[in-house]
Each structure stands twice: as structure tokens, then as C-alpha cells.
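In the laboratory, one determines a bound structure by crystallizing the protein with its ligand and collecting diffraction data. In a computational setting the workflow is compressed into a single prediction: the sequence and the ligand go in, and a structural description comes out. We illustrate the idea with S-adenosylmethionine.
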Amino acid sequence: MTEKIDTREFQLLRDYIKEHCGIYLDESKAYLIENRLLTLMIENGCSNYTDFYHKAVNDPSFKLRDKIIDAMTTNETLWLRDSSPFKIFQYELLPAFLKQLISGNKRSVRIWSAACSTGQEPYSIAMIIQEFSRANPLFHPSKVEIIATDISPSVLFLAMAARYDALSISRGLPDELRNRYFEQSGKVWSLKDTIKNMVTFKRLNLQEDFTSLGHFDIVFCRNVLIYFSDDFKRDVLSRIALRLKPDGFLIVGASESVSNYSNIFSMLTYERALYYKVR
Ligand SMILES: C[S@@+](CC[C@H](N)C(=O)[O-])C[C@H]1O[C@@H](n2cnc3c(N)ncnc32)[C@H](O)[C@@H]1O
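The predicted complex, in C-alpha cell form:
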């Protein structure tokens, strides 16, 4: 068996991964393919990466393709990640939405978490909405719809289960929110239905057409563009722009640039954090 990937095999698998999920790996990332696909290669009875590639290409059920995508995606996430997007949301956007809802300029608020991983991002959004509503009883959480999507079936399964172990629950979540919105049973923390039921999960590859999702007041597309090729970043940003309502907002990850890949958006700041709207 050959555990080491050669240049040709790297190119085959790199192109396969890019074609099926948009993730782009340059030569320096050959080790990632070795680290993440070796077990799958062995499980599939392949003795080298060339056989493994052909097995994936010729698998009519696409099961192996999905396992490769699962293995190659980075699912790192945590509660209230980077804090500032959630401050923008809580202190800038929700108060503005409340005014519009009261004046009748808006009937509802639609939010999309476009690469939601195991649910921490959309559920953080939902908890912030509940907190905002506690402080502003005129704002009713039922006015908000949260759609959360991801390419990976395994993270979506965990997100929908909404049960977290001690390590996941400890990452970024203040005790106050944990105690209010989760129930502990042994080592497992289960999210209460009040929050869980606010989020609808769907499988979506951002390479696919997403017009059927409708239009949104806010799109959170965070810490996923960073893995894509420049062309795919441009493509996703231009299609997200079409999904935003005229006064809608885009929030990306702290290390992700919008202006390098699109001139459709203008940049807004809240304290020192950035968010975007269509020009
Ligand atoms: C690092 S996580 C980010 C999670 C969350 N947005 C955050 O900031 O904490 C990236 C997620 O993007 C998903 N992803 C990768 N490629 C994707 C694609 N082509 N379409 C949709 N989701 C994708 C992965 O499955 C993973 O769950």
C-alpha cells in the first residue's frame, strides 16, 4: 500500500475536491489530503490514491464523494464566534429591524447562516434574538426565520440533534446563556426547543443554485470563503448579493475579505467590526 500521495494523484484529488465542493488546495496542502483521506482510502480497500480517485469517480451512489467532502471540510466552529458579528446583530441590526417592524416597513426578518457547521452559529443568532426580545418585548422571535445550510451531512446531523458535549458547550458560550437555553443530562447539554425550533437546517452546496432560498435581511457567510478559489469566492459573493433584500446585510469571517473579490458591496463598520451591504 502507498500512503504517500504523488504529484499526479494530488492533482487528481485536488481537482475532484474543487469540482465537488469548491475547496481549493494548493501544492502545500498535499499533506491535508494524505491526513484526511488515508483512512477512507483503506476503508474502501484501495492500495493507492489513484485507485481511490477512480473508485470515487465511478461510484454511482455518490456515497464516497460525500465522505470525501466530509473529510476535507474544516468544521471548526464555536458559540458567538469572534463576538463582534453578534454585537453588530444585537446592538445595530436588531434595533433597526424592531423599528421597521413596528412602523410596518417590515413584516418579518429572514436570516441565512450559509455554512453553519454543527449549529453554533445559527443557534447563537437564535439566542441573541431571544435575549433581544427579553429586553424589547415588542420584538417577537416568531417574526424571525433562520435558515442554516451546510454541504456536510454529518455536521448537519449534529446541528439538528442540538446536543453538545462539555468541550463544545464551553467554547464561547457565556454561563448565563448556557444555563438559560440548555438542559444538562450527564455529560450532554441539550438545547431547549425554544431555540432549536427557531432554526431550519438544509443541506446546500454553495456551488449550487440557491435562489429557491428566497431573500434575506442578513446573510452570515463566515469562515468558509477562505477555503475557496478566488473565482469561486467571486461567484458566491455575487450570488449572495442577489439573495439580499435591498436593505440586507452580509457578514463574513474576521479573516475574510469581500472587497478583494467583489465591488458589489460597500463596507460598513460597527465599533471596529465590518459588515457589508449591496451598493
Ligand atoms: C469552518 S466552518 C464555519 C462554521 C461557521 N460559519 C463559523 O464561522 O463558525 C466551515 C463550514 O463550511 C462548510 N462548507 C465547506 N464547503 C462548502 C460548500 N461548498 N458549500 C456549503 N458549505 C460548505 C463546511 O462543511 C463547514 O461546516
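Strands lie at 109-113, 144-150, 163-164, 182-185, 188-191, 199-203, 216-221, 244-252, 265-270, 273-278. Keep in mind that any predicted model is a hypothesis to be tested, not a measurement.
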